[in-house]
Write the structure tokens for this entry.
Amino acid sequence: MVEKGKVFQILVHFIFILLCLSCLIPFVLMIVSSFTSETSLIRDGYSFWPGEFSLDAYKYTLMDTGAFLKGYGISILVTTAGTLVSLIITTLYAYPLSRKDLPGKNAMSFFLFFTMLFNGGLIPRYMMWTQSLHIKNTYWAYILPNLLMSAFYVIMMRTYMSNSIPDEIIDAAKVDGAGEGKILIRIVVPVAKPILATLTLLTGLGYWNDWLNGLYFITNDKYYSIQVLLNRMLLDLQFLMSNASQLAGSGVQIGMLPTMGIKMAMAVLGILPMLIIYPLFQRYFVQGIAIGAVKG
Amino acid sequence: MKRFRKVVPMGLAICLAAGMYTSEAAAAEENEPYEVVIVEGGRATQDAMDAVSEKLSEITGEKIGNTTVKIVTVSQGTYVDQLNMMLSSGEQVDLCLTAINNAQSVAFMKNANQLLPMDSLLKEYGQDILKDVPEEWLKAGRVGTEQYSIPGDRGKGSGIGFFMVKDIADALDVDMETVKTLDDVEAVLNKVKEAYPDMYPLAPDVGGYNPMPVAYDPVFGYIGCIPDIYKYKEGDPLVNFYETEQYKDWTTRMYKWASQGLVMPDGANSTVTNKSLMAAGKVACAIRNTDPDPAGEWSDAVGKEIVVSELLNPTLYAATNHAGWQVGIGSTSQNPERAMQVLNLIAADTEFANTLCYGVEGVHYQIKDSEKNTIEYMPGQDGTSTEYESIWGRFPQGFDIYVPLGRPDNFWEIVKDFNKECVYSPAYGFSYDPSNVQNETAACANVISKYDAPLQCGMLDPETELPMFIEELKAAGADKIIEDKQKQFDEWKKANSN
């Protein structure tokens, strides 16, 4: 019996180590190649130990172009502001829905669900944002469209709240003389910390990784966030690849074609903040999702 | 959604009609103030766009009156998406690039109501364009008999050349003059392999682009193409590029070369240009399309001296895909007359064209030699750090503007000779609208991306894979595309024969 258990243990460990490695190896490769000199990358390809150690890629991305640092700043600003506002809105929507005594609850729920199933489509949305709300080439373009509030997150939070906050606590608070505002801030929010942390991470990740809004709404280079910058380079590369025969004799240049090392360096710098934040939130992450899901 | 698409252009048309009416009434006295928005593909900072717009507006204010210009530069890679979005949402676009790739042909844009017809505007405001741009080129901007778009002034065709690092060619005693056929090339590659075992003799460009040295015209997407312009006889049907004998020969040869170690392995997945591979000393030779002055261009980019031998005879041909990069009037223009006036000014006014193409003097470039009409980057700047990437070659800007940065002093002379030498494809000027067979086109594109580059880079054995490729194309609807294209081609020929 013991033997069997041990074999099973080893097998499971083996499988999980393999899975871990398959996640980690490309990652290590990326970091190592970002520290390898360009010529050695082209000549010898990627390797786990830098053929010729070089900081050129980082020097180029960080020093030569202020665009990168600026993009970094914009991404941080947008992620912070967007996540904060998004969490406030989500909480304010989810908490009332979790209360059984909310009048008009069905209508409010329907209003929420409807947006999950139907939307106006790309072009009408683009028209609304650019021509009625004029967010083109502003920071709002990163914060407002698509990401500000997700119906799915509201439902996640509502489920969590209606499961883990007993009506009795709220009744007790009422008896003690707390108003609705006080109940929300002093009781509901502290109890809902795990789900709040989870949603912070998910929303933050969404904002940090978003490039679609930038693609549609930003043409001014002063407003390029880091992801938009990276994405633009990739798209330029793709364009070059798919239109090679078209470009002959046309005098068309493609600027900003990142070399291999620079691409890797930018990718490393692009995920760095998330790498730092993730472990801090991981504890809540598991807790929040598990409780929200199992008790449903 | 479909209905919506129809309503928007109709609404626009009504607005336009109203706009034309009012502007005509006013034109008699003085121009009302109007800003012409030029949407361009390339790379420019906002500051550079503003500076160039301001300089251009000064000139238009003087020459046209009450007119300003606003440049909107969109990244090349996102250009098509951005332009579609702007046009279908009704955002003002007065002048825009057209025909920049197969999915964006003039015919397609016209049928999607993205472009305005130009004939009457040209007659009234575009005399300089009509004077400067030869009829042969204008054809490429026509759908039916109506002009929708004006092709840019630049090298109009291409050859296919064999490029080699000069040091290596000298060391191996290769006389480039004698390298004319693929057998000659093979001999050279074998020599390279022997003398430089740690180098790849030949490498394709990014994404496995490795053009075969035949003067083929893909006619918007290879399925339904003219396999050899030089051998074309009147009435020859359009055929599937991948079913031709020459494609089979080429892929068989590449497979052989790859198995002999003459070609870089896994070339279809390469994300590095063969110029950078040459610069890193990894690769000795390349086969690639040639522009005017190919050796100069490559030597500049690689940083080593490169020698070139043309593999085609006659050397240069102009196919439908060389007719791209044109400029048209967007359907959301509120004042097409003014847009045409500005377009005409590009042809008529050298200072205006210079500013549009190269930026502001003293900010984005400086005069190198005013006698020779040459310019250079500002001190400390180069092609990658400049704030305004030059965009010559997309407008009827004429050949009297400054010589493009980094090109030889007599570049425009070379271009003119180049254009004279070009053999035009029988389909040159034809513009295909794939919207009838959109599903088939997408399905075929998937199949092509699966097989084409690996076959052309010698990664797959054509003996077994090519029949599968052709079969999958047939299943994806290749025949339907050819039929549709042939029909449009015949109609175009009929319309253009008289």
